[in-house]
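Hi everyone, sorry if this is the wrong subforum. Our group has a chain we'd like a structural model of before ordering constructs, and none of us has done structure prediction before. Sequence below.
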Amino acid sequence: MKAVLPGALAAVLLALQAFAAPLPAAAATAGTAHYVLDPAKSTLEFTFTQAGAQNKGRFRHFTTVLDWSSDDPAASHLEVTVDMASVDTGDQERDDTLRDADLFAVKKFAQARFSATQIVKTASGYEAVGPSACALRPSRVRASPT
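Answer:
Right subforum, don't worry. Here is the predicted structure as tokens:
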């Protein structure tokens, strides 16, 4: 899924590649399947531009829950919670800068949350839209499966 966040993260690539099997129907509402993230098969990646160069990073720790209604995607719900201290760009100095008070402020804001308020079918699949709460500032996020 692609998502746009303010500040240092110009574009976030959320690649939730695999979910565990749905829980029994009793765990979800009628016609809705409940999925939880399979951490061994999932990644949360982002791309950003620094000094004119395209870079990539990821968050090592995050949780995702999806209540999916194939009959009515608008009735579906997606929640993503990210451990902001788990940022990893492959450069320790840059990671420390991201965690610092000027950007993610992880000592004050340990988690970022995305809660889809709307899931709509698009020409290329589905798009989840909703508010994001993170240290940078609350923002609206559009996320699309990739």
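For your construct planning: The domain at 2-143 is CATH 2.40.128.110 (Lipocalin). Residues 92-99 form the longest helix (8 residues).
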